[in-house]
Amino acid sequence: MEEDEELQRTVESLLGAGATVVDCERRTSVREEETLLVNGVRVELGGADGAALREALLAGAAPPADVLARLLGRAGLRRAPVRMRTSLSVASSVVSAESVVVRREGRVVDERSKQRHEDNYYASDTDEVWLPRPPAPPLGAVTEEQEDELVRLAERLERAAVSAESSGILRMQTPTIFGTVASDQTPKDGSSRKSLPQTPQSSKGFGALLNGGGGAAAVTATENSGSSLESMHDTAIDADNSLVYRDGGNLVSGSLEALVQHMVPTADYYPDRAYLFAFLLSARLFIKPHTLLGQVCTLCDAQQHLGDKAPKERLGRFVPHLVQLLAEWTETFPYDFRDERVMGHVRSLTQKCVAIDPSVRREVSALLQALLLRLTALEKYEEFLQKVNAESSARSLDCLSSTDVTELCLNPASLAQQLTHIELERLSYIGPEEFVQAFAKENPNVETSFKDMKKTRNLESYVQWFNRLSYLVATEVCKHVKKKQRVKVMEYWIETARECFNIGNFNSLMAIIAGLNMSPISRLKKTWSKVPSAKFSILEHQMDPSSNFSSYRSTLKAAMWRSAGATDERQRIVIPFFSLLVKDLYFLNEGCSNKLPNGHINFEKFWQLAKQVTEFITWKQVTCPFEKNPKVITFLQASPVLTENALAIASFECEPPDNNHEKERYKTLRAELNS
What we know:
Blueprint: H1 2-15, E1 35-38, E2 41-44, H2 47-59, H3 65-74, E3 82-104, E4 107-130, H4 144-167, H5 204-210, H6 229-237, E5 243-246, E6 250-254, H7 256-263, H8 273-282, H9 289-304, H10 312-332, H11 340-356, H12 361-390, E7 393-394, H13 405-408, H14 412-428, H15 433-442, H16 457-478, H17 483-503, H18 506-516, H19 519-522, H20 525-528, H21 534-542, H22 546-564, H23 578-591, E8 601-602, H24 603-620, H25 630-638, E9 641-642, H26 644-654, H27 660-674
Parallel strand pairs: 7-9
Antiparallel strand pairs: 1-2, 3-4, 5-6, 6-8
């Protein structure tokens, strides 16, 4: 009734007094629209593109890249770099109910029920940066040169599309001279950059030591924001010019250029330490250190305008970052700076840093002084090795020292401690990069110029030390003509090996076992019959090579666990069986390709190499807590040892050949010695 009166008044106000409503028809129109909200902006889901996007979202799949590109273009969202984050969550709950009813004479006497709930939850996120397309040139404005450029661009885009499709990873980039984009806008001067996490979640110890950090994929470009049309398109779509992340932000691959840019600091960005270590460790498989540092210098000059009058406030934040980068590089990989070409770049960079910000002079001076001390110590160490190795081999018993190890060091535990001194000292001089450089030297696919790098001498010297210790053990046994004395020496070395095991010195332990198992020693059956074999059998079992040294690996894990929670320096010692460590790294290198099918560098392999090498760094940094005995250490490292043939002759003189084969061999060896 009230509505009718309201309607009558409205009609009279429009048509005048006395006008009457004879009939009235009401119509209701309902319009339904499906829209997608992207960063709060409404995008209509119309046409074939809308249907394709709707179908993908309902199926829980990633929408086609070209569909998203067209929809965002129509919505005006591709006029500036836009960061898109898409999340998918699926929750399911299953309830199972069981009921039991007990009836007696038709009457319910007991009733019980039980329910079981099973909840499942799945979530995934994708994080992408979309680049605005540059405006098309007006008709008639394209020159012949630009036309050729666009033809080349089309060919590259076609290859990139095939690569992206085959890899199954959607990659979109935004042009920034600083790498990973993690903000909605990139400043025009490129002065800021945020880093996505890349520390592998599985390598807890690795991330903790270096203070480093399903399916998200994020990428970075490597071109300046003022690049040409061609480079702009390369940056936007070319899969070879990106960094790829997944599993919660772990870096898995990227082009060499993008990886280099990712290590270059800016005023507001500093690379993750775990990433920096992994990249500097393994990048030498693709680029020499002096070339890498040269590219860093070039990028710093281009980005920060070090030679021009750049804003002092920004440079004041950038210079400390650059000095920190040099400090970490020189601290972790000091042997890279034995190259004069590398030092030339260091001098250039440090001079610019001090000229821009004099307050960093003290840090620069400390950096260079620490580097000089490390390189001087390395030079002295290498001179020492050359000296002790010069006359360490003997051709006969007459050339050996008359000193007996059991008289020089009465206590096997003390000898094990001196061996540990030698092991830790030699370990401390092995640069972590030597493992990777050994791969580069042996890899026939690496360019020839890499093979001139003689930068693995400390690693090789350590392997030689293992061999020397084995031969020293065998020599100390065979140089005694009397069986009773040989038995005493064998028991002494077995007890020393047991003490090495207790300390955690597995490298010396294995060297002693190898020495006692050498053919000239193992054939001394009369001598071994007098040696209590139980202790030696236990040690052999611990270092049994069967099942890929499974017993030793279990023992090593226990030693690592002990070391991690130790407060006593003696309990922190872990000296691995070095040859097995090198073998593991070798097979890791051989078993994983350096590059992926799309041309990206396989950074997942870099993470694994870095994780294992980081454990080695932890072990070699332990300070030996035992008192040093210079005489014993000198004897162990410098006393002459018998060669393989000389050992065989000495063994036959201790216990004569007992079969025709041994008799023939002894005869041949004597003839060679006399000649």
